[in-house]
Write a structure and sequence with these properties.
- By secondary structure, the protein is mainly α.
- The chain has two domains: about 5-195, Growth Hormone, Chain: A, CATH 1.20.1250; about 210-395, Growth Hormone, Chain: A (Up-down Bundle).
- The chain has 19 helices and no strands.
- It has helices spanning about 5-15, 20-40, 45-55, 55-60, 60-80, 85-105, 110-130, 135-140, 145-175, 175-195, 210-215, 220-240, 240-250, 255-280, 285-305, 310-325, 325-335, 340-370, 370-395.
- Helix 14 packs parallel to helix 17 (about 325-335).
- The longest helix is centred in the middle third of the chain and has 30 residues, at about 145-175.
- The radius of gyration is 20 Å and the shape is globular.
């Protein structure tokens, strides 16, 4: 589907006024909120799950790493398997799978069953993201796409600020099984909402392996993928260990780390919407600014973050910058591949999720074998390389 064909297709699919299309955007945003909450909630439940099911906290960590890896694999595979299936039906089916998977986690009699249910969560996360990430172009007018994309990715920040902490609190007060039950109930609510607001979404293209490979031959898509790998890998290599960074480098007491991470999430939400507004004017400059800000913020901890105030300020700057990564790079992919948004988005979601797991793993190796500061150097170096790649794209007029 060409760029000029997108608007007529969107109008036919929605067959509704702008308000109804924005209701669909809101429904997809609720979906992204649920996805991120479901993917990351076990981080706050590792100790209680490990104790209840007699596994170590390290083993319990499979509840996080396993679905992330599966999500990365599912992102391109699910659209290929379903081929021309109406994307509305696909999203509803994946949300139904999320409902069942979280209920399975709540009822799991042992850790093996729990991990299997988390693998199903990974399939739902990867498949849903592959479609939802580029859905704004099919729901709103072209001029509103950056804003709608920012709203959809606002669900990510909301999950970090509200979803995961509230889910962890529910687990602490009532037990981890109740927390998973609550996730299942939220997935059911999201399923009903999507059923009510999503228009028919005919597949614009049938995703095949050769179509995915074709995207990598496009300079703009290629740079977007490279930048995604570097920024997400570098961020999670450092952010996974942000708690010891704040305590050991900045001298912040442990009891203040939680509130500061809440502030980080709130800054991320702000950065998401600021980036969305900026992207509507200049995509390249906005994404480059995000990469440069991350390249500066992480290594600066080693110089200016050795006091509580300095560490807190740099954490906020870091949160503002990373908050724009998802919406910035997804908008980049839409601009780079207007004729194959879903295919390009599938690749993007795949590398995004895989980079999360690989970045955390690399950071752990560096922290264990070298120094805590090394994770910050790695994060900053990756962001700097991403900025250089983005600057090169400007030279070749890949994305403006």
């Amino acid at each position: 589907m060409t760029a000029s064909e997108q608007t007529p297709t969107r109008t036919q699919e929605s067959g509704a006024p702008d308000q109804s299309r924005w209701m669909a955007v809101a429904g997809v945003t609720l979906g992204t909120f649920l996805l991120v909450t479901a993917e990351q909630l076990p981080i706050g439940l590792l100790t209680s799950v490990g104790s209840a099911l007699s596994v170590s906290e390290g083993t319990a960590g499979l509840m996080v790493t396993a679905p992330s890896i599966v999500a990365g694999l599912a992102a391109p595979l699910v659209p290929m398997v379903v081929r021309a299936l109406d994307r509305r039906i696909l999203l509803l089916g994946l949300m139904a799978l999320m409902t069942v998977a979280n209920l399975g986690s709540a009822l799991a009699p042992n850790f093996a069953v729990l991990v299997c249910s988390r693998l199903l969560v990974g399939v739902a996360v990867g498949g849903f993201w592959a479609v939802a990430a580029g859905l704004a172009v099919r729901l709103v007018a072209p001029a509103d796409v950056p804003r709608a994309t920012a709203v959809i990715f606002g669900g990510v920040g909301a999950a970090n600020v509200f979803g995961v902490p509230l889910g962890t609190l529910v687990g602490d007060l009532t037990g981890w099984r109740i927390a998973f039950c609550a996730l299942s109930a939220l997935a059911l609510v999201t399923l009903i909402a999507l059923l009510a607001v999503l228009p028919r979404l005919v597949a614009s293209q049938t995703i095949r392996p050769n179509l995915l490979m074709e995207q990598l031959r496009d300079p703009g898509v290629r740079v977007g993928i490279i930048a995604t790998v570097l920024l997400v890998f570098g961020h999670f290599a450092a952010y996974t260990f942000v708690s010891p960074v704040l305590q050991d480098l900045s001298g912040i007491e442990e009891r203040f780390v939680g509130p500061l991470l809440f502030v980080f999430g709130a800054a991320g939400m702000t950065g998401n919407f600021v980036a969305g507004a900026a992207l509507s004017r200049r995509v390249h400059r906005s994404v480059l600014t995000i990469a440069v800000a991350m390249a500066v913020a992480m290594p600066l901890f080693l110089l200016l973050g050795r006091t509580a105030i300095g560490g807190a300020v740099l954490l906020i700057v870091w949160g503002l910058a990373f908050g724009g990564v998802s919406v910035g790079l997804q908008t980049w992919m839409i601009k780079a591949a207007p004729q194959a948004v879903e295919a390009a988005s599938s690749l993007w979601v795949a590398v995004f999720n895989l980079s999360i797991g690989c970045g955390a793993l690399a950071g752990g190796i560096i922290v264990d074998r070298l120094t805590l500061q090394g994770s910050l150097w790695l994060g900053g170096a990756c962001a700097l390389l991403a900025a250089l790649a983005i600057r090169t794209a400007r030279t070749h007029d890949a994305v403006r």
